[in-house]
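PT: before anyone asks, these are the final sequences, not the draft ones from last week. 94 residues across everything. Please model them as a single complex and drop the result in this thread when it's through.
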Amino acid sequence: MTDKRFLQDGFDKQLGHLIEEMGEVGAAAGKTLRWGPLSTNPLLPPNEREANITWLWREMHDLQHVLNRLALTMQADFPVECTDIPLRTGVSEY
Ligand SMILES: [Mg+2]
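LR: through. Structure below.
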């Protein structure tokens, strides 16, 4: 999860964060498919290992929050262009 201290406001920064988190979801999804949902990264210290499916779930959580923040910003910055398709934006811990 992104540390609150490093969250940035504004469309460009939030769109960049979305791209970053999509990449992290992609990495976790790729490892999950290649090595299996319950496999762990053997290069990590034992106390830092987590199952690929747990990693994927955590990254999906990150992505959901970043997507929610960006959606709110887009609705505020581009209210006319971003009103036709409703997005779920109510869930956020940030
Ligand atoms: Mg992440």
